[in-house]
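Table S5 (text form). Sequence records supplied for joint modeling of the two-component complex.
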Amino acid sequence: MIETAGLTKFYDSLAALVDLDLAIPAGSIFGFIGPNGAGKTTTMRILATLLEPTRGSAKIDGLDVRTQGAKVRRLVGYMPDVMGVYDDLKVYEYLDFFAAAFDIPSCKRPGLIDGVLELTDLTVKRAALVDTLSRGMQQRLQLARVLIHDPKVLILDEPASGLDPRARIEIRELLRELGRMGKTIMVSSHILSELAELCTQFGIIEKGRLIFNGTLDAIRRRMGLHMKVRVKVAERTDDAAALLGALPEVASVARVDDYLSVKFAEGRSADGLIARALVGAGLAVTAIVPEEVNLDEAFLEITRGAVQ
Amino acid sequence: MLAHAWDFLRGGRWFRWLTGPIFEKELRCASRRRRNYVLRTAYVLLLAAMLGLMLASMPSRYGSSLYNQPWQTARLEELGRMLVFAIAWFQFIALQLAALVLMSTAVSEEIYRRTLGTLVTTPLTSLQIVMGKLAGRMLQLLLLLALSVPPLLLLRVFGGIPWEYVLGAVAVTFTALLFVAALTMFFSIFNRHAYVVILATLIALAAVFLLAPWLTGTVMDAMGAGNRRIMASLASFNPYMMLFLLTEQLMGPGFIGLPRMFGTDLARHCGLMLAASTVIIAACTAFVRRAARCQATGAPFRLLRRRGAKDAAAAAGDSPAHVPVGRVTGPPVLWREIRQPLIRGRIKRRLLPVLALLVLFGTYVSTYFDNAIADRDTHTAYLVTFLLLAMLITAITGATPITTEKEAQTLPLLLATPQTGGRIIAGKFLGALRRCLPVWLLMAVHFAVFAPFGLIAWFVPALMAFVAAGMMCFQTGTGLFFGALVKRTTTAVVLNVLLGLALWALVPFILVLIEEASGPSRNEISGGFLYLHPGVQTVVIAAAGCGEPRHRTGYYGDNSRNLAFNWPNGNSGAGASATFIIFSSALYGLAGLGAAALAAGLLRPRAP
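The corresponding structure-token record, covering 916 residues in total, follows.
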């Protein structure tokens, strides 16, 4: 549904985006992750036809964003990172305005507006002035706005930034619901763990370059995060550490308090290996627990090199 | 005790106590702002160009007599006085305009960037915030004032220019500058947009220095006071009048120096202006903390505290259920633009038109008692005033629609819809025209009042409609162009107003000076250019068709069929004049549409 090839954007001499190649299939929820200033917003603005790329191409549903901007805009619902609201309009009028801007006939608008208000749980606020809404409600209104013309693709730039935990969960549930409705969603954040449960595919961008593109499992495999286990033996912990460290499948062993943190070499299986080795050496194993996956650590590790 | 006081005064500690770190911050920021350097350069260049052109026009003005020994001394004295007069008035006007622009962002920028609330959470006092801002920006203005002092002093070598005049002109300028700066700062506390601050200050200045003296003068005249006494009384609190009196003395025939009593008048004037400035600064100090609290909490700022159920409902975000929700009809951008009123706030919206009409009819009454209601020049002055006011408002309404979208960060939302740049600009264009229309209708009110009495001929409204239409299209188009080009509303407004000033004040002035320098008979260029000048067109139309018919320039004898218009390069017939006015209106209209088309092209590439 969304494809970019060699997408590059320069602001004067600053490279905001360098040769970005993306392929986001229809119906997927794509998490676009990166630190501040990585190029997420630039990519999204190009896809929303707000920016022209310096070179390369970007297509949405086969339509080139550069040459077929008008058609692309009908397909896309774009929510920018900063909320812009007309302070003199009411919620209903705000949505009616954007419905009209998308050339939706006047007779169809009331039904559509009622529908998106219900979906975003804003029906009770239909007569409230937009600038009197709380930040969470304004975010929901923005979502209602991007849905008003029933776009195939949603491009959401940090939709949960600045929201309290409850509002974040609500937004996440709403996006999940939209994903179930078959929308292709591109959502950005600088926190990987925030999108972990929501997205089916991830792209990690740093300094304008895509440094990772794949599923959450692929991230885990790459970082070896699900190949870490905690081992606790009843006695002779040092012997156990030496034994495990000598195994070719083990990349490293670290002693943390009274247990051992064992990291396996990339691509090696951990099935039963530790238990067999320790028991075979006559050591009493009291616990073998897979270490909890820390996506934020993974994100830091993936992006660390480029930052430095 | 005395030693402490002396130490406090000597080490500059009093200044730090008065302005806090704000002064230093203002200076640091000012040194990094390119616009301050541009302002200084433009000021010096304009002053130099004006003096250069005046000097170049010297031989054509005086001919060979300048080089004739017996005449030389007297002529040089006269020339010196002219140059001093020009510098004095230039610095007086230019510095007030610069003060308006520089001070308009003093507090409003802090409100706009939401930093004022943070500022008042520090131990800084309100006085330090106000004085720090005022002193930091006044210093920039004083630098400009200092730039024109050396030529003023140098010109004394021409002879015939007393010290009192030079010092008096500088003192009047300084006190007027401080007053304007303080007043602008006062308004910047209540508005986050600098252009609104500028407009509010201009209106206040017009009320204080134009309307009030006029009404006072009328009353004093009715009470039998002589002209000279009226002028002297009004000059006490009117820097324009004061400088006028001062230069009148200087430029008058047989000038032998300023009268001794003048020093007293000058001191009284300066004292009053300083006192007024102090009162305004005190008001700023009183209000700035409240404005900061409102900014920090998001509550609307009100001069008078008002608490009620309506406010509570608004604060809670619940609009009353019975308030109807509007439906979008027609093009959405136009619909939204039409909804936006020229004046925000229900009370202001109802009060200001009534106030404007009251003031207008008040001036009519004053003019009537002055026996000038049937004068041609009275109506010319009215029409020119309406034109200038309407042009100023049009320049503002035209420059705001795009930048307000940019500032509210709603433009990307609009650009992400299928609305093309052309459709957006067309909606904005029509909306801006609609918003500036009420101000142009003041002219229509004037016609409606006086045409039935035969004081305004039928063709005046018809031709003025063309002038108005041309200006509305032109200024709205250029305003939209500047709006698409820049990010901030104030920048767009200032650029649009500056374009008007450059086209209709600076260019004619320079053309006239160039032609003065070229010779007395060569006025084809400026004459030709002035034909396109909306002010000149208004004066010509008004002179031909306003006032009692016998006073009009438009008739030869009593035969109304011989209607003629008195243009700068001579008389023209009614047909030719009307054709030219319609042609120039179309020209302005096309230029405006062209600028709007450029804006449509710029909208996406210059999107934030």
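Note: Chain A touches chain B through 43 residues (CB under 8 Å).
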